[in-house]
Structure formats: C-alpha cells, structure tokens
Amino acid sequence: MSERKIQLKGRVFITFDIVAKTGLHIGGSDAGVEIGGVDKTVIRDKLTNRPYIPGSSLKGKMRSLLEKYKGLKQNKRIGQGFIHTCEDQSEYAGCPVCQVFGVPGELKFSTPTRLVVRDTFLSEESAKKLENAQTDLPYTEVKTEVSIDRVTSAANPRQMERVPAGSVFDSAEMVFSLYEIQSENGEVHKAEDDLKRLDVLLEAMRLVEDDYLGGLGSRGSGKIKFRNIQIAFRGQGEPETLGSYPGLEELTAPALRQAVAKIQLT
User: Fold this and answer.
1) DSSP run (H or E) holding 158
2) Count of other CB atoms within 10 angstroms of residue 81
3) Is the pLDDT of residue 74 over 50?
4) Which of 42, 52, 198, 217 could bridge 212 with an S-S bond, Cβ 3.0-4.6 Å?
C-alpha cells in the first residue's frame, strides 16, 4: 500500500463587496445591554468598534443552505440543531458540500478543506456616512420590535441593533484551494476535479442572496447582495485575473466555466 500524498496545485480567489439591502444583524456579545439597553447587539471589531461580517457566519450560512437545498441528511448534532457530515469514504467522494466546506479532521477519510472565507469589514465610505448620520449607536441603528402575549395581550418591546440598509462591506475574500491527492490505495483525486466544484460555491452564493445573512431574517433583516465580483487564480507564478462581474446576475454558471477554462494547472 502506498503512502498518502497531497499537493497544492493552486488557489482561486473570489473577491467581492457585500451590500446590506435591509438592516443587517450578526450577533455579538451582550455587553451592549448595559450601554444602550439593546437586547441583541451586533459583533464589532475590537480595534475600530465598527461592525463586521465574520467569515464563519457567511461560510456557515452557505453550507447550511446548500445542505437543505440538496436534501442531505442532518446526522451530526451541533448545539440545538443538526448539520450534515459524510460518514464514510464513498459518501464523501461524491458529496459536493463536504468536499468544498470540509469535514472534521479526525475522520480517517478527511482531506484539506477547500474553502476559506475571510472576515469582511465595513468600507471606509460607509463608515464615514454612518459617522455623519449620527446613528442610534456607533455605526448602527436600533430597531424596536414588540411581541404581544396572546393570552394577556401585554406588549413586550425589544430592541435589536442592526447595520443600516445601504451599508457596504468591501474587499470580502473567499479562497478556493485545488489539490491533487493520492490516497493510500493509490487512487488519485485530480485538481481538475476541484475546479468542477466551483459551481457549488456559486450556487451557495445565490442561495444566500435569496435568503438572508445573520439573524432576524424572518422579520426583514439580513437581505444582501454580492457586488463587484473578481475572480483570480494563483498557481506557481503571479496571480492571473480570470474575470470581473458587477454581480451574480452576470456571474452565471457558463460565465464561471469560461473563466475557469483559462486556468493552466501544472
């Protein structure tokens, strides 16, 4: 039996801006309750105090929506819910979600996670606009919601912190790695096979646009758009730009395949 070998053949970089079409709430700590009486606060950068979008929030949302869209079994408990994780090599080899988003490293059949999603920060232009707008809290608005007790009819007001609609989080980045992997039994996974999975990533981005990001989505928050999308590839040399797209409307599956066709793997 041969040894397992893994070689990184290159990386595809997808950069973009995230535009909040409605107020955006991605939860932070409860420290804000003492500051402004807000029940649900947003997560903030410790150095700038500006809201940001954690990469884990975007990646987790994309994966969750893909699992449901493709009808994958929810077989692993996380907190109060369940997620999908492949249970054996044969299932993993054909799973579009686990191949891209990864499985727990302790599984014997696991390979390196293909997708990295970085944190995304509020653009300087949006930050200046929000500073000048004199928002309820620094860079954010406070949305008051009232729930009604159906038995007593008593009102229970709650305050939620959101990044206002129209705010832009720029220079977001996803990195998709391409690997050639030789397993212990001699089978070879080619980097070209990873390239075919990029359609899965595009599909996940569309699902997020149709749904919402963060919390309070069923009550109007979290509608976003991906804008100013750039695709580039780095192999052994300098990065090569593959395509530029104003939004997902232009980045169709055929357009993505046309861009990917420019990649030369050595």
Assistant:
1) strand 155-162
2) 9
3) yes
4) 217
Tokens of 60: 């987790």
pTM (2 d.p.)? 0.90
Residues 6+ apart with CB under 8 A from 218: none
User: Which pLDDT score is estimated for 51?
Assistant: 97
**Number of residues written out for the chain:** 266
Place of tokens 């994780």: 85
Token reading at 96:
């579009």
Cα–Cα distance for residue pair 44/53, rounded to 1 Å: 9
Measured distance between the N- and C-terminal CA atoms of the chain, rounded to whole angstroms? 26
Separation CA 107–CA 88 (nearest Å): 9
Other CB atoms within a 10 A radius of the CB of residue 129 amount to 16
Determine the Cα angle at 35 with ends 29 and 37, to 5°: 85
Look up residue 191 and give its two tokens.
């980097």
DSSP single-letter state for residue 177 = E
Are 128 and 27 in contact by the 8 Å Cβ rule? The answer is no
Tokens standing for residue 220: 């109007």
Identify the CA nearest to 136 among candidates 128, 145, 144.
144
Which is nearest to 143 in space by CA: 67, 231, 220?
220
Q: What is the pLDDT of residues 140-193, one digit of tens each?
A: 999 887 667 667 766 677 888 999 999 999 999 999 999 998 877 777 888 898
